[in-house]
Amino acid sequence: MVNHEDSNNNDEKESGIPKKEKSTITVYQFNDEIGDFEELIIDPDVKLPDLLDEDFILLFVDPQQYRVWLWHGLNTTTRMKFIAAKMAAQIRDKHGIAFKITAVDQDMETHGFKVMLGLEEKIDYSKAQTGPAFKDTDEDLELLKEIKEEKILLILEKTGLPEGYKRKMIIVKNKLYGYKEFEKSHLNSVIKEPQLFSLKEEVEDGAYLAENLIPRIIISYNNVILTELLEKANGQEKETENEENEFDDSIKKD
22-117: what CATH class? Predict the structure, then answer.
C-alpha cells in the first residue's frame, strides 16, 4: 500500500518546495504579574470557547483571516486592558504586521469573533441583501447602546495621535468628556494611564467655539464613532489642582 503523504513529502524535498503548514488559531493569555502575554499550549480535545473565562484577557491570532482578537473577561480591570492593548501589537507583529487587531468584551462578542470560535457560521455575502440595513428591533437597538469608557480608551489607544498634539476633550454621541493621562509605576517602570471624566459644570445650551482646539473625527463603516478635540503640545504639561476647570475654559460660547 502506497503512503501518499510520504510520497508527497519526498517530492517536496526533492523539488525544494517547503510544505505549507495548516492554518491554526494561536492563543495567548495575558499575565498581569509580568505585564505580558504567554502562549497557551492547548490540548486538541479542548475547544476554543472553553478557554473563555471572566477573569482572563485572551489573544486569538487567526492567520487564515489575518485577524487578531483581543478578548476581555468581565472581571478584568481597565489597567489590565490598557497594558494588554499595548502588548497585543507586539504579538501581532510576530505573526504579521498586516494583521488587524480587534478588541471584544465578554457578552458583547461580534459575529466575526464567534465564527472564529466555531460558534456561528460565516455569512455568505455573495447573496443579495434585501430590506433595510437597520430595523427598529431589540437586536438592532442593542447596537446603539452607549460606548463604555473603557472601550473609548481602547479606541483612542488604537487610533494614536498626530505628532505634536495632545487630547483635551472627547465627544461620544451626546456626552462630553475631559481627557487626562496620569503617570503610574508598574513593574519598575512608569506608564501613562489615560482617564476620561465628565466635565465638572453643566454646559449651557447654545453654539460654541472650541478655542485653540482642532477637531478630529473617528469614523468606521460610515458611522461617527467619536470626535476628539486636540491641542498643540508645548512640551510641558500644565499641572493644576482642578484639571476639570482647564477643560471647561477650552470651549467658549459663540
Answer: alpha beta
